[in-house]
Amino acid sequence: MKRAWFAAMSGAMGLLSGLSDEVAAVVDSVGPALVHVRAVRADSRGLAGGSGVVVDDAGTFLTNSHVVHGATAIEAEFSDGRTRLADVVGDDPATDLALLRVTGDGPFPHARLGDSNRLRVGDFAIALGSPLGLARTITLGIVSALGRTLRGGGGRIIEGVIQTDAPLNPGNSGGPLVDSSGSVVGINTAVVAGAQGLSFAIPSNTAGFVAAEFRAHGRVRRAWLGIGAEEVVIPSGLAAALGLAATRGVSVRSIETGSPAARAGLRPRDVLVGLAGRPIASVADLHRLLSGDAIGARLQLEVVRGHERTSLAIEPLELSRRH
User: Fold this and answer.
1) What is the CATH number of domain 223-321?
2) Integer angstrom CA distances of residue 21 from 16, 24, 111, 182, 300
3) pTM assigned to the model
4) Domain 116-217: which topology?
């Protein structure tokens, strides 16, 4: 019996040792891309602190809008101790994301954005950042839910948000959420005050779309359908019968009167599975497809309605000009 106990304990210790090695390898890979952000605001005393993650070797980094919005000066401290003033490339309170760049000698270590659509509930999640000003701090948890919603700047709902129990504190905002392969799958954005193990991150697919818009236009140009939406799972049997490649889609919760969705004939509980010939498996997918190129275009919207698949023509409007 003792031999069995020792064998079980040895196996458990081996698993823990393997997990420790994997986490340490991820930290070694992504840690150098971490940024400690300090923002000065005219209406605040002292500095506002946050985190960021470098996404190219020129020192361009992502952080949260609420960390840098309205700042009169922004300083970025890199993992090697270099400190640089940073300029805002784009700031989007609607998704709580901002892209900044520094001037100075490169190259800078950087991380890669992963595919947040591949995340599963139960996957390991590693959060990096500067909580309470303690730079280069690492916490470990799991993805505890997908497809959550948060309220962003201007009252816009941020949908498709990742929920994790990786501990976050003030100052973690803007830092990367990383999967077990070392890919950035989210940008940490919020915690629920008074709760235990409720932390949230903007999906990397949303962050990638927003960063591309910033680089191209200096702002995020968005097409608008006029729906409230949530991610849902489509039963595998129904998905197969309808010829769908994925078992996830975006369900319509509500429709604004006079909106493109209303004019196209969308109904509550319709499930969006494709737009302009491209699949929709998440709210992040829908946001990416509703880029500036979709404004005013006549697009085919693939919908699951009940147990049938149908196609509707829709012409999105620009979000800022919808009224």
Assistant:
1) 2.30.42.10
2) 9, 5, 19, 13, 48
3) 0.72
4) Thrombin, subunit H (2.40.10)
